[in-house]
Amino acid sequence: MTLSVSVKHTFEGFTLDADFKAPAGVTALFGSSGSGKSTLVNAMAGLLRPDHGRVEVGDRLLCDTDQGLCLPPHKRRVGYVFQEARLFPHLTVQQNLRYGRWFAGIRGSDTEERRLVDMLGIGGLLTRRPGALSGGEKQRVAIGRALLSHPLILLMDEPLAALDEARKAEILPYLERLRDETAIPILYVSHSVAEVARLATTVVLLDKGKVLKTGPTEEVMSDPALAPAIGLREAGSVLSAKIVKHHDDGLTELASAGGRLFLPRIGGNPGDRVRVRIHANDVVLSLDPPGRISALNLLPGTVTSIRAGSGPGAMVQMQAGDDQILARVTKRSIAALGLEPGTGCYAIIKSVSVSRADIGAGDQSIAKSDTTT
Amino acid sequence: MDFLSPEEWTAVALSLRVSFWATLVALPLAIWVAYLLARRDFWGKQVLNGIVHLPLILPPVVTGYLLLLTFGRRAPVGEWLYETLGLIFAFRWTGAALAAGIMGFPLMVRAIRLALEAVDPKLEQAAGTLGASRPWVFVTITLPLILPGIIAGSILGFAKAMGEFGATITFVSNIPGQTQTLPSAIYAFLQVPGGEASALRLVAVSVTIAMTALILSEVLARRAAKRVAGA
């Protein structure tokens, strides 16, 4: 099911003019605060009536101002998970979960409810009221509530932004399961590169009310031209890989399109797919294969593009197998090594620089790592 | 009941009946007006707000006289109501209920409006995205959340109706068994020699009813507030 959105809206000196199409899977609407993400999502949900706009989910037209059509929120079948869970305080968790289901007019889908409750791990909370839940629990209930209303699409507006790191880490696996176990398309709004890198299949990069780029996560994340919009410190490529073996010394061996990776022990079994985010700041480039060096990961490849900013640094994109790797180095190093597109070089990545938060479960839609093992 | 004479008992029963109907009929209207004032922007909002609060500021006698001018048998509205619906307000218990309801109305609106303004519209938005149309959102989300305000408003309105004197006596006079409510009866007993004992007994009844209403509202409101807090 594809999603097609085109919205023009002006208010308080800010103009949103965004246009994108997204395939099934998780589409991340990514951008800094004030880039217009929430406005766009509210226009999709019908909470805001845009000056001009067209929103289509699958073959269902939700809004087309040219035709004078703009469905009210309750007729859109759009599930919305808000930043603050917005659970109904006077209802129990179970009543909250069933609220949308009741309006969707669906009876007898108890099996589905049980499956979702299990998946979200909220079985023990059903009789409680929202006031007695933690932030992470509230958000999981909100996700279940939205899904049980049988939406055509699920909108998630920074669902983790109000939570601390521990709570985020608690919920992210549930979101990965949601991506992998349900067929419903998800539009995930976020300004966190880590979340986007872990969850998204497609990224829509929004900047100052305009769409800079729409594309597969790996492609958008490893595009040196987009690094300034993503944030230089946050920029980094996303690799999909497969777990080969857990070694006795605590390292896990992964096979990626570019070569073998050794990372500190990660969860999962041999054969499982994972996606790994490699910060551009953590990558060292070398023309020759280094001899005696402590870094364990060495990926050979070719420089594909270089983008220098106004400062002393530059972003180098390198092709390693089918994967792109982004490295942030100084202009001085580029000159010293004579790097230019076509130069063969090695990317050196320290195992310990990849943290747990950079590794997530891989989704089925990325199958290319299969071909390399 | 031996504690009260039949005449006193009539006054108490009438007062309860008048206040009950005044509150019951005024309540939906008060919720609606409170919703308009809290949630909607429209031309003449301040005028509506002023009219609603007028009975609180005007001397009750003025309100009673205005009611007489509007709802009297020969008055325009009163005549129309009689001819179309057969409703008579002047010098009937229904008139006492009307006066009591109007005097208590601003108190009810204020309490409910405060509760409405405390409801997070974001919850109503969320209900909308879950498939609830506006009326359903109101019934399933807004109404339960403002329940403490509705209870408080009703009790206030009821208490005001029980105590209403000036507007009632001006509008519907002081006819035993028809329009002689508790306060009117107390006033009447104090006007005749030897009526103090009766007046005192009615005062005791008044105090009892008022206290019961207050305690009841406190308990109900606390219970409802606890539910709304979601704990």
Report on the architecture of this protein:
The complex is a heterodimer of chains A (about 375) and B (about 230). Chain A has about 375 residues and is α+β, with helices and mostly antiparallel strands. Chain A contains nine helices and 21 strands. Chain A folds into two domains: about 220 residues, P-loop containing nucleotide triphosphate hydrolases (Rossmann fold); about 140 residues, Beta Barrel (OB fold (Dihydrolipoamide Acetyltransferase, E2P)), CATH 2.40.50. Chain A has a six-stranded mixed sheet, sandwiched between helices. In chain A, strands 2-1-4-5-6 form a five-stranded antiparallel sheet, covered by helices on one side. In chain A, helix 5 links the parallel strand 8 and strand 9. The two termini of chain A are about 30 Å apart. The C terminus of chain A is likely disordered. By secondary structure, chain B is mainly α. Classes of the chains: A alpha+beta (about 375), B mainly alpha (about 230). At the A-B interface, strand 7 and helix 2 of A face helix 6, helix 7 and helix 11 of B.
Beta-strand percent range of chain B? under 5%
Instruction: Supply the CATH class of chain B.
Output: Mainly Alpha
Specify the CATH homologous superfamily of the largest domain in chain A: P-loop containing nucleotide triphosphate hydrolases
- Counting copies of identical and different chains, the oligomeric state is heterodimer
**What integer is the average pLDDT of chain B?**
90
Mean pLDDT of chain A: 86
Helix and strand sequence of chain B: HHHHHHHHHHH
Shape of chain B: globular
CA radius of gyration of chain A: 22 Å
SSE blueprint:
The complex is a heterodimer of chains A (373) and B (231).
Chain A: E1 3-11, E2 14-22, E3 26-30, H1 37-45, E4 52-57, E5 60-64, E6 69-70, E7 78-81, H2 93-103, H3 110-120, H4 135-148, E8 153-157, H5 165-181, E9 186-190, H6 193-199, E10 202-207, E11 210-216, H7 217-221, H8 227-230, E12 236-246, E13 251-256, E14 259-264, E15 273-279, E16 283-286, E17 297-308, E18 313-320, E19 323-330, H9 331-337, E20 344-349, E21 359-361
Chain B: H1 6-39, H2 45-57, H3 60-71, H4 76-85, H5 93-118, H6 121-129, H7 134-145, H8 147-163, H9 166-172, H10 182-191, H11 196-229
Organism (chain B): Thalassovita aquimarina
Subcellular location (chain B): Cell inner membrane; Cell membrane
Protein name (chain B): Molybdenum transport system permease
